[in-house]
Amino acid sequence: MEDGTDLRGVADIGSGSCHSCTLSSLGDGVYCWGCNNRSQLGRTTAQAAQSAVAVLVPSSSAARLLAVGIEQAHFFGSDMICGWGSNQGSPLSGAPTTTFAMPTCFSLASVQQPFLGYGFGCARLASGAVQCWGLQIGSSTIMSPPGMAVPGIVATTLGGGEGHACARDVNANLRCWGANSYGALGDGTTQDSTIPTTVIDAQGAPLANVLSGGIAISASSLHSCAIRSDGSLYCWGWNNMGQIGNGLRDTNALSATAVRW
Hints:
261 residues; mainly beta
């Protein structure tokens, strides 16, 4: 913290490209540290170039959930979402402003699980609907906050990467949408999609029995992984450095592939 004492009461944490933020369980708000070249710390670049200790984001005491993107962060209150940092893709506002040095807010109630990608944000609502705003993943359309519901999905768990999102549906199948040049959607194609497509296995069947809960879906920038109820682990997408874990590299996996031990 700014007074040199250790940060206590940490309830959640997230990291971007060169900054991290944490949600306090003590009710005082969100703390961030690291770079501030795009106002990731909730301060103008003139106020701080970076911070090596956690600093309190102004006007963040209403936070109850936290999501951290590549160059921005959001906190979620009972009926609002407030974000600061980079506005590339307009995840903070439909306005063309490039950065927001303090939290800017819009209304969205019943958020259960948030996620931020590059230039977009999504949230799983209490109804199971998924609401997204900013750059529509899979297209170049800008959706001003609070955006719109993603069609055809009732979600129990939400995750995503730089340009795609994935959700476990009520049938324990996995659905993904967004950028797909390297197979990040796991649907057997490299076709981008603005609507959820079903992740399939190597035999072309839906990847079934995906675990519910926060650890079940893990998605990086261009590849994704999921755990099934039998404990098996599957990954798909970009594999230039062996990220898929199938014993190969430089061969992208367009469908879910079992990780080898």
